[in-house]
Structures are given as C-alpha cells and as structure tokens.
Amino acid sequence: MLMKVEEKKSPMRAPDPSEKHTLSVVVDNEPGVLARVIGLFSGRGYNIDSLTVSETQHDKHVSRITIVTTGAPMVIEQIKSQLARLVPVHRVADLTVGGAAIERELALVKLIGRGEARVEALRLAQAFAVKTVDATLESFVFEITGLTDEIDRFIDLMAALGKVEVSRTGIAAIARGAEGL
Amino acid sequence: MTREMTGAEMVVQALADHGVDTLFGYPGGAVLPIYDEIFQQEKVRHILVRHEQGAGHAAEGYARSTGKPGVCLVTSGPGATNIVTPLTDALMDSIPMVVITGQVATHLIGNDAFQECDTVGITRPCTKHNWLVKRIEDLPRILHEAFYVATSGRPGPVVVDIPKDIQFTRGVYTGPKNVVHKTYRPKVKGDLSAIHAAVELMAHAKRPVFYTGGGVINSGPAASQLLRELVRLTGFPITSTLMGLGAFPASDRQWLGMLGMHGTYEANLAMHDCDVMICVGARFDDRITGRLDAFSPNSKKIHIDIDPSSINKTVKVDVPIVGDVAHVLEDMVRLWRSEAHVADRKAQERWWSEIDGWRAKKSLAYQRRRDVIMPQYAVERLYALTRDKDVYVTTEVGQHQMWAAQFFKFEEPNRWMTSGGLGTMGYGLPAAIGVQLAHPGSLVVDIAGDASVLMTMQEMSTAAQYDLPIKIFILNNQYMGMVRQWQQLLHGNRLSHSYTEALPDFVKLADAYGCHGIRCEKPDELDDAIGEMISVKRPVLFDCRVANLANCFPMIPSGKGHNEMLLGEEVTDEDLADAIDDAGKMLV
Known about the structure:
The structure holds two protein chains of two kinds.
Chain A: E1 19-28, H1 33-43, E2 50-57, E3 62-71, H2 73-84, E4 89-94, E5 102-112, H3 116-127, E6 131-135, E7 139-146, H4 148-161, E8 163-174
Antiparallel strand pairs in A: 1-3, 1-4, 2-3, 5-7, 5-8, 6-7
Helix pairs in contact in A: 3-4
Chain B: E1 2-6, H1 7-17, E2 22-25, H2 32-39, E3 45-48, H3 52-66, E4 70-74, H4 78-82, H5 84-92, E5 97-103, H6 119-123, E6 129-132, H7 139-151, E7 157-163, H8 164-168, E8 170-174, H9 192-203, E9 208-212, H10 214-218, H11 221-234, E10 238-240, E11 255-258, H12 265-273, E12 276-280, H13 286-289, E13 300-305, E14 319-322, H14 325-338, H15 345-359, H16 375-386, E15 391-395, H17 399-407, E16 416-417, H18 428-438, E17 443-449, H19 450-454, H20 460-465, E18 471-476, H21 481-490, H22 506-512, E19 516-520, H23 526-535, E20 540-545, H24 573-578, H25 582-585
Parallel strand pairs in B: 2-3, 2-4, 4-5, 5-7, 6-7, 9-10, 9-12, 10-11, 12-13, 13-14, 15-16, 15-17, 17-18, 18-20, 19-20
Antiparallel strand pairs in B: 1-8
C-alpha cells in the first residue's frame, strides 16, 4: 500500500529567472588552474558566456579570470562557492552584485572586400571610433574596444559590407571606485 | 629539519613526518625509486594489494576508521587510472586520502611514453586538489601541502604525481613545520550571530528534528560527543544519513533510525512534518530528500557545514552556518546552556507522541521464514552475536548495504565504513583490510553481496598475506539484488542481466586463497555458523544463502516525497508495479 499522509500545501518552486553575472576570480597562476575552473563549469553544467584570463601580478604569480555566466540566483551562488573552494583560488568577486562594474571587450575585425564597400567600412569605423590596424587593397583589420553589444553591432554592420573574420577577447571587467579585490 | 636527499627519499621521509604508519600500494616502473626507499626503512609499513583499486579502498577504510588520512602509492598509467574509482569515492564521501603516483620522466611527458597517462588531467575532477611535481625544489612543499589539503576543511583525496627523474634527483628536504598554504584556509569557527539565530529557532521549535550526516564523523570524536550533548539537552529527535551512522547511539530513545530512500517511516515523516530542521554535516543528497518540492515543506532549516558550496545547493536553508561541526556544536551547546533555553515541553510531548505513532508502524518489519534465511534476519543475527565485541563493519553496495544500515545498530562513530555518495560495489572487502590493519585486535566484518564482492575478490589474497582475519559475510541471493528490485519496480520485472548464472563456490574460493570458508543455508544453523566465523582467526568468506527475491523496504520510490513511502509489510505486487511514475523513472 502506498502510504500517503495528508499532503500539506507545499510551496512549488517556480523556476527562478536566469541572471547574467560577471565574476572575477583571482587565482594562483599554477599549471592547470584554468583547467580546474573550466572543468568545474563543464562538469557541473554551468554556463560560460565569456571567459578571459591573464596573469595580472607577475611577481606573485597571480592571475585574474573574468567569467560571465548565466543562471538562476541559487545556481550563481553555487558557482561562486564552488569556485571559492578550489584550492588555488584566492578570491571570487561578483562584480554584478557590487553595482555597475566596468566591462570591456576587444575585437579584431577583418573585412575583405573591394570598391564602395571599403569606403563605407572606413566611414563606419570612424563613426565607431575604431582603429584601423592593417590595410591592404582588399582588406582592413579594425580594432574595436567597447561593450559587447557595441562590438556586436559593429560586426553586424561589417558583415553586411563583405566577408568578415573576427577574433574577440571576451570580457575584462573591474569594479568602479577605490575599493580593490 | 633540513637535509639533502633524493626525491624518493623525500617521499618516504614526508610520510614518516606526517605520522603515516601504513601505506597501501602496488609497485611499477615509475615508482621503483620510491619502492627502493621503502625497502630500506622500517618507519612506514607497506601493504601490497592485488589491484590499485584495492589500495584506494583499503586506504579509505583505514581513514574512516581512524580519522587519519589514508595513503597510497601506485605507478603511472594503469596504476593511476585504476585508482580513479577510490579517488572519486573519497571525494564524494569526504574521506582524507593522499595518493602518490609515479609518472614517466619529465622529458617524456606528452610523448605517449610507455605507461604514461595524464594523471593530473584524469584525476582533476575526482580529487580535492592534485599536483604534478616538475622540480625537486617543489617536492617537499607539495608533499606537506598534500597532507594539509587532504585533512583540513572538508576532507578529501589528493594526488601528487611525481615523475621518475624527480624521484632520482637530489634536493633539500625541509620538514612539515610551518607550512602555511597560500590560498587554502578553510573557516572552522561558525558565525556567532548565525549560531545565535539557530539556537533561538530551536528554542521555539514545536516539531524539531536533527538531521545529521558524515560531517559529524569527519569532524572527529569530539563532534559526536557534542552532538549527543546537544540532542540530550534539547530532547529533540534525531535521524542520520547513511554516512552519519554511529555519531549518535542507535540504542538511544531519541534515535529515529536512518532517513532517506530506505530510511525508517518515523525518520522520514519527522523530516516531512517538522517545523525546525537542524542539519548537521549532511548535504541534502537526493537519496535523502526524495522529490525536492515535497521535501519538508513547512520547516525552517538550519544547516551546519564546513563547505559553503554544500549550503543552498539543492535545498534553500534559512540559517546557514559555515564551520566545522565540532566548533559550531560547541558554541550551540554553550549558548543553549547560558541562555537557559528549555524546549517547549508541551509541544515536544505532542511531537513525540506523533513520532511514536509512526514508530508503531514498525517499518523495518519483515516476514521471517523457517526454511530460508531472510537477509534481514542474517544481519540481525550478525548484530546480536557481535554487539558485545569490538566490531567494525564495512559494506559493499546494494540491498545488503541498506539492510546492514537498517539492522546493524551503531553506538560509536568510525565503526561503519560504506560507500555512500558514489555507491561503489567492491568497496567493502578492501576497506575491511584497511580497517583491520588500523585495528588489529578488532572484529572487522564486511557485510557483502555476492555480486559486489566479486569486484574486488582478489584482495582476499592480500588479507591472507598479512594474516588479516577479516570476515566477509556475503548475503548471497545470486542476484544483483538492488538492480533486480528496481527492474521489478520500473521495468515490468524483466530481470535483464541481474542474475549471476555462474557464481563461484565461495567456500572453495576461500580455500583457494588460503582462507576459511563457511556456507550456511538454514536459519537454525545461522547462529552457530556466525559463531564459527567469529572464532576463526583467519580471513573468512561466509556464504550466507538468503532468500533470492527479497526486496529492501521501506522505500521512497524515485520521484516521491517522504510521505509517500512503500512499507514492506503492506506492499502488493500491484503497488510495486505502479510505485514509480514516468518522471520518477528518469531518476537514478
């Protein structure tokens, strides 16, 4: 017999809405540390929208990883504590919680084309305050720095003008104000 | 201490410096220099296993029964891959373990050399941390860090991968004193204001329950003592996960038995109906919670855990306390006392009488049979005949494991070694070896299943070599019992490959290993046979033939809540066939 005790009203949890968070993870720059972070995300099924990493304090072997991720609030909390318990992690900061942080991305955009399209591309590049870092008779390479959306828009415009190849860095971010990590 | 020596010497020296008395391992090309050092010393005893998985589980058994880290030494390539299962097992159950693996020489790494594998890559997700040592200068520090990381905070397994050339290289060894880790410093003291809030909540609880887990055991014997003190002070009922058995004495009136999928009716209903839940060192595992949205719907939840990532992982809690169980319980006991809290007596009486009503269901009851040994009866008799002894119990994984958890009563922590999180068949026999080595004069019994035990049976040879009188008590039903039970519940009783058609003759097998074999088929012969098993001072394989098709009850079918239990005495075949709906079938 299936034992059923009178069911009290249980609060069915509605699926929490997803949030986008930018996390700064300060790590000891030891071999495999990036693999640990990435493995954590893939192993536990978390999203990575963007990831950048570079050594920021050479003498102390400290690197900073910036991760943009999306998930329900409970999942974001989980991601932070999972990251924090990795042995080589010094600190995890949620820049999204700390108020509007500065976020920037850099892209190199190669446009291949001839004729009128080239002129238009240069005009647009000017409008976006984009640097032209390489030019041939059949191509330009533009360097654009800005918010992700801005870069997306620029690339869309370029794509309308010719064949486009793109290399992007992913987002680097830092909190505003005097307080540091 | 600072002295020049080779990398291999450093390994052995570091083991000795960290108080390691027993090392489980298997030699091979990439660890020969370390084995040569082991040969020339007497501080660390090396136990030669028959398979690296056996080394890992033996180390786990050693660790769980002593609270000290278990240590293994294996070679590169297959030596390392064979120990992946114990590493994962130890990670899931938070067992401190230090595994040293040999690696091909540094200049060969990445060349697909003989017996090369990417050990740190393979073991990264199944260790708390791991290291590949590329410079002799780093070796002493890494060895000391390995012990520190494995044993502090939430314990876990670590791997130190040492290339063969590093083992030969000479360098300066410094002892473990003053090793301060750069980044890893887990917090042991709980936040006092949170503890205050928890105590306040407990003081006003009308239907409280303690839900405790393996964290209490891992925190050390003091944690179990403090838990007992707090539970008695408050008068609250207490239940525990599989991993936490023994932290609170099972003979106590306040003990509700284990909770979860095969937990008691009273434990699960107390969890479902409580108004304040005090979770101490447990992690709201799916085997505990059942259907999440039906889990203890009306309670305020307090959660004590040393690992912040365990908090709010699956179940949202109201009062999280990050800290070591013993430290936090100490504060709780002190606050409860100093503020002269008394639980609401009237409400407690009502709560207990409700619980007694659930207890009266006798959810562990089963039909005894005269012609055939019921598996539950076998565990009951084993318990009755060993309870006055200094006994340690390990298990394999499956029905027998649940019956052992239900019917063997533990009074003390560190007496119960089982693979909880990973559910590793083949854990119990090598674990028993590790336990027996740590407690040479004690009675060590592996309550086993016929299928599980064959997975690491070769370790009987280890037991024989070192004269370890472990008792392998096999509940032999010729099935993978739990698999069969699930096939009955989920798959129209089509018993696909869950029957072992050609089991070995366990008595002859014992003989072949130079061990003692016993077979028992009749309930009225069981006591004598168990008596014989206890009195024999050699490793024993006990083939206990039990009812083939017994099911393990009570049970919360997958996808159901705590208040939807199947009780053995009342269940019909039809109930079994309908117990799990389509959504539940997706769950493991």
